[in-house]
Amino acid sequence: MSAMPMIELWRGGMLESVHAGHAVIWGPGGIEAAWGDPEAVIFPRSSCKMMQALPLVESGAAAAAGLSDRQLALACASHSGGAAHVSGVASWLSDLGLAEGDLRCGIHMPWDKDENKRLTCSEAAPCQLHNNCSGKHAGFLTLNRHIGGGSEYVELDHPVQRAVKAAFEEVVQETSPHWGIDGCSAPNFACSVAGLARAMQFFAAANPEGSAREAAAARLTRAMAAFPELVAGKGRACTELMAACKGRAAVKTGAEAVFIAIIPEQKRGIALKIVDGGTRASEAAIAALLVRCGLLERADPAVEKRLPSVQKNWRGLVTGEMRLAPGFA
Amino acid sequence: MSAMPMIELWRGGMLESVHAGHAVIWGPGGIEAAWGDPEAVIFPRSSCKMMQALPLVESGAAAAAGLSDRQLALACASHSGGAAHVSGVASWLSDLGLAEGDLRCGIHMPWDKDENKRLTCSEAAPCQLHNNCSGKHAGFLTLNRHIGGGSEYVELDHPVQRAVKAAFEEVVQETSPHWGIDGCSAPNFACSVAGLARAMQFFAAANPEGSAREAAAARLTRAMAAFPELVAGKGRACTELMAACKGRAAVKTGAEAVFIAIIPEQKRGIALKIVDGGTRASEAAIAALLVRCGLLERADPAVEKRLPSVQKNWRGLVTGEMRLAPGFA
Q1: Rounded to whole angstroms, what are the CA distances from A54 to A190, A225, A269?
Q2: Contact (CB, 8 A) for A272 and A36
Q3: Exposure check for chain A: N or C terminus, fewer CB within 10 A?
């Protein structure tokens, strides 16, 4: 099965651009709805950070380090590198007796407008704390200290990444057919869209009083939903959609237009990938699926911002709109 | 016929994302090569600015105002709002006895890094001169003064836009089935990808000593090719690809992933649209077609930047590459 059209951009009453993709909603009984090819193999990229954080929690490393839910939210984040994100990761590393130089995520300018402006206008250089994955890496370093691994914790055969791969494959219930190096240098393991949705369903249904893995999944989901601003940042889709859901769901984006949702009250997991990697479409699609599942109203500002029923130009003139393709969501 | 895959993004030996589109190469004898659906109807957006500038030149308005090739390059530009662009349009308006307030393009922050930083760090506001279309609008105002139209020159029934529509339909040799309002508030007329390529072939073959329209088309092509930095800006695809072509071709991007090329020495025109609107793919695709036509080497830095044979992450680790889809270019 091939990708199906999901998101359309209209101008002057004519379809101008269209994004196709794959999406799966997995409920307690299995697949409840699917579009495109559920078996399409994708890189989940940052949408799987809560899976990459499972060993951190289930191993006891998080408890041993006394990590808070705020820190676990940062471990699952693709944050904007704002003041709260940078200081949160900096103090976390300091608590571990480590520093920015121990990170292996690399450096990029922060997406946070205020911090980006501060650095730009002061001619200051960003550091690894600004990297959107620095919280995930602080989590890797916390696990690494607990299990006594070496400093190069992003290498494929390092105990930290071996533990991540094992947890990932067990939760998606697939043997990963490919792996790639992510933007932050950590390995990223491929899985099917259905497998990613099934894993998110496991997180949604996880019993806080259950196995070490279930308890870890439940706590990570709660941490993400409780601190939307730490998982992404001001104005970002994950932050605004989770804030609008008021703690009822955790959602997470991944590079190249992947998006997931975890809905504990419905024991439902959602995964989607827009095949062209267009983030505007993955954000619109996850917003539409949250509406379909009854978590948000179509008119909610967090939905309307991603799926604009009216688009205007620089002078405020109406130019067109974004629409769901026929048969999607 | 539907869109065909053109540009692939690979990671860890696996196809991660793919962009599909339509493309046509039109030569002296008609269509020489096509991918996807040549009859697909698209909005050319800013890729048709040289057609929107035809009435300005063929009416004699440009000559009456003593416009230089630099000014005609700005009339065909989606410029970055850098110092040279802003001052060029400001002095042009001043020569007309007009000012920034006479523009109807609206305001957005400039893409030019230096000017963007200057405004951001001085808390200064951008103006309509920074709008990437301000040169096109200065051209509209020059034509408008010549024909004595009213101040609202972007309205569909204004003499300026009626002249633009007539020239557009004559050169694409189609009756435009739709029109939309562009980001800069000017009407944008739909045409087929084949019609856009045919129009670019007319520009490529236009005789400077021929009809008023041919002379206008030839001069606009020469102006674009002669001043790549005015047509876009530092680091931009149009600028770097035209500079690499050393005056042998004019290329122009349009929003939502449209790209055209005019190759006078081959009397060839090229038009393409990536259906998902992904600019990274339209830039890669036009670069590949310029290589196919023998204007650029695959290894040219301007090509490699748009079609990277190696992609690296923040730490310089190789993560994958961009590839042409089988059967394209």
Answers
A1: 17, 16, 17
A2: no
A3: N
Question: Using CA atoms, how far apart are residues A19 and B274, in angstroms rounded to an integer?
Answer: 10
- Residue A24 sits at φ, ψ, to 5 deg, of -140, 135
Of A255, A69, A299, nearest to B280 by C-alpha is A255
CB contact under 8 A, A105 and B314: yes
**Mean of the per-residue pLDDT values of chain B:** 98
Q: For A140-149, write each residue's pLDDT tens digit.
A: 999 999 999 9
pLDDT of A316 reads: 96
Residues of B in contact with A320 (CB under 8 A): 180
Residue B243: band (very low, low, confident or very high) from pLDDT cuts 50, 70, 90: very high
Is 0.90 exceeded by the ipTM?
yes
Q: What is the DSSP letter of B34?
A: E
Assigned token pair, B1: 């016929």
- Say yes or no for a CB contact (<8 Å) between B180 and A319: yes
Q: What rounded mean pLDDT belongs to chain A?
A: 98
Does residue B232 surpass a pLDDT of 90?
A: yes
Residues in A touching B81 (Cβ below 8 Å): none
Residue B70 near residue B34 (C-beta atoms within 8 A): no
Cα B98 to Cα A218, B90, B138, B184, B230: the distances in Å are: 64, 9, 9, 19, 21
Residue of B221, B224, B226, B245 whose CA lies nearest to B303: B245
Kindly list the residues from chain A whose CB atom is less than 8 angstroms away from the CB atom of residue B165. none
Residue A9 three-state SS: strand
Instruction: Give chain A's domain count.
Output: 1
Show the tokens assigned to B57.
């030149």
Alpha-carbon distance B11 to nearest alpha carbon in chain A (angstroms): 6
Quote the pLDDT of residue B281: 98
Residue A187, SS3 per DSSP: strand
B99 falls within a domain: yes
Residue A1's pLDDT is 64
Say which CATH number the domain at A80 has. 3.40.710
Long-range contacts of A128-131 (CB under 8 A, 24+ apart): A128/A100, A128/A101, A128/A103, A129/A81, A129/A85, A129/A86, A129/A89, A129/A90, A129/A100, A129/A103, A130/A81, A130/A86, A131/A81, A131/A103, A131/A105, A131/A106, A131/A107, A131/A184, A131/B314
- B11 in a structural domain: yes
Tell whether B61 is covered by a domain.
yes
Which of A165, A181, A272 is the best residue to mutate to test the B interface, defined by the most B CB atoms within 10 Å of its own CB? A181
Residue-wise pLDDT for A240-286, tens only, equals 999 999 999 999 999 999 999 999 999 999 999 999 999 999 999 99
Whether the predicted pLDDT of B1 surpasses 80: no
Give the residue numbers spanning the domain of A312.
4-324
| The pLDDT of residue A101 | 98
Residues 6+ apart with CB under 8 A from A296: A241, A244, A245, A287, A290, A302, A303
For residue B231, give the nearest of B242, B247, B218, B244 by alpha carbon.
B242
Beta bridge partners of B41: B192
CA A84 to chain CA centroid, Å, is 18
Q: What is the torsion angle, in degrees rounded to the nearest 10, for the CA atoms of residue A178, residue A232, residue B305 and residue B245?
A: 140
* Model confidence pLDDT, tens digit, residues B51-108: 999 999 999 999 999 999 999 999 999 999 999 999 999 999 999 999 999 999 999 9
Answering whether pTM is above 0.80, one says yes
Residues A275, A257: Cα–Cα separation, whole Å: 7
Domain assignment present for residue B223? The answer is yes
